[in-house]
Amino acid sequence: MTIIQPNLKMSRMTDIDLAQYDCDGFLVLNDFVDGQDCDALRAHAEALVREFDPAGLISIFSTREQTRTSDDYFLSSGDKIRFLFEEDAFNPYGSLRQSKEQSINKIGHAMHDLDPVFDGFSRTAAIRNLVSVLRIDNPLLLQSMYIFKQPRIGGEVSCHQDGTFLYTEPLRVVGLWFALEDATTANGCLWAIPGGHKLGLKSRFLRADGGGTRFEIFDDSPWPEEKLLPLEVKKGTLIVLHPLLPHLSRENRSEKSRHAYTLHVIDAATHYPKENWLQRSPEMLPRGFDRGAIS
Ligand SMILES: O=C(O)CCC(=O)C(=O)O
Fold first, then answer.
1. Does the C-beta of 183 come closer than 6 Å to ligand 1?
2. Cα–Cα dist 15/174, whole Å
3. Ligand 1: distance of its center to the CA of 260 in Å?
4. Whose CA is nearest to atom 9 of ligand 1?
5. 108-123 mean pLDDT
6. Which are the contacts of 150, defined by CB distance < 8 A and separation ≥ 6?
7. Residue 11 CA to chain centroid, in angstroms?
8. Which of 106, 179, 219, 282 is the most buried (most CB within 10 A)?
9. Residue 64 Cα, ligand 1 centroid: separation in angstroms?
10. What is the tens place of the pLDDT at every residue in 45-90?
C-alpha cells in the first residue's frame, strides 16, 4: 500500500505566521505537498470512483421520494465514504446525463478514517504540529472531502463560513484545503474575504426536527463580496481556513479539473452539538492523529 505523506518539514513551522492568520483568517502555505504525492492522491481518488457502482443510487434517486432519500444519503455520510453528485447529474428518468467519472462533485466525509491512503495522508506529524500551532490542543479529525470541481460542469460553492456547517462551542475548528492541481480563476479556485472572519458567525446548518436540514440565521446581511480575493495557488499548496472566514469557489467552465482534498479538525475540549448536520455513530467517533484503527 502506498502511504502518501505531506512534505511539510518541521522547520517550516516557523513559516506559520499566526499573526497573519489572526489578521486575514487564512494562510497560504506553498509547496506543502510534493507534486508526485498530489498525483498519487488524485490517481487513488479516481480509482475509488472507477470502483464505485452507482447502480443502487440511481434507483434511489429516481424514486418519487427523491428529496427524502437524497437527504438521507447525505445526512448519513458523516462516518462513511459516499459519492456525492453534481447538481443535475441525473436526468428525469434517473439516469446519469454524463459519465460517472464526470458526474461526481465530491467524495465525503470520513475518507480519513476509512480509506488507508487518505488515513495515511491525513494523519502525519506535520499536520498534527500545524494544527497544534493553530491552537487546536486536543485534535479530532472530523471531516474529509475530495472535491473534483469537474471541467465544464464543476458547480459553484457559494459564499459561506465553515463554522456554519461544522460548529463547536466554543468555535474551535481548522479547515485544511490541499490543492492537488493548480487552482486558478478559470478552473474555480477559492476566493476569500481577508479579515472577514471578524464579522461573526452568520448562520448554522442544522438537522431539522421533522427530517432534512435547515439554516438558523443570525445575520442576513449580504457578504461584502466586492472584498473577495482570488486565492490562485499551485498544486501542492495548503490553504488554512479559519472557521469564520467567508469564502467561495465559482463554477468551473474551463477544460481543466481542479481537484482538492480538505480536512477539518476540531478540538475535543469543545462541545459538538447533536443538532449539527454531520453526526457519527458511537462506534465511529472522530479520532485524533494516531493511526491504526482501519481494519
Ligand atoms: O473546493 C471548493 O470548491 C470549495 C470548498 C469549500 O469551500 C469548503 O469545503 O468549505
1. no
2. 17
3. 9
4. 262
5. 97
6. 86, 102, 103, 104, 105, 252, 257
7. 27
8. 179
9. 30
10. 999 999 998 877 765 555 555 566 668 889 999 999 999 988 777 7
